[in-house]
Amino acid sequence: MNKDELKRTSNEAPLSEVIDKLLRAYRLDGKMKELDIIDAWPEMMGTAVAHRTKEISIKNKILYLTMDSSVMRDELSYGKQVIIQRINEKAGFDMIRDVWFG
């Protein structure tokens, strides 16, 4: 092979770019970001909150949390705006607009 054969042609793209385009085309990019946020919950909120969180999901820009402690649930309900801000900063866009506790 010579140098010309090893050069990329203008229609080739890095794999990450191709994957990003596929995720957007199939509207999976938002779902992937939701999973990233759920995985980062302990990092964003700390281990004490993470250990008390039994279920976490995101639907229609609402974060749904099920806690195993009524005290923790009450404390977090007062800090909804902080939760929303941390998640949106981590996501890089306004992913969440409200938090509901179950």
Q: In percent terms, what proportion of residues is strand?
A: 15-25%
Radius of gyration from CA coordinates: 19 Å
Distance between the termini: 63 Å
The parts where pLDDT drops under 50 for at least 5 residues are none
Count every beta strand, where a strand is a DSSP E run of 2 or more residues: 3
Overview of the molecule:
It is a single chain. This protein has a domain at 31-101. The protein is α+β, with helices and mostly antiparallel strands and 102 residues long. It has a three-stranded mixed beta sheet. It starts with a helix and ends with a strand. Helices cover 57% and strands 17% of the residues. It contains seven helices and three strands, in the order H-H-H-H-H-E-E-H-H-E. Strand 1 and strand 2 form a beta hairpin.
Secondary structure layout plus pairing:
Elements: H1 3-6, H2 15-25, H3 29-39, H4 41-45, H5 47-52, E1 53-59, E2 62-67, H6 70-78, H7 80-91, E3 98-101
Parallel strand pairs: 2-3
Antiparallel strand pairs: 1-2
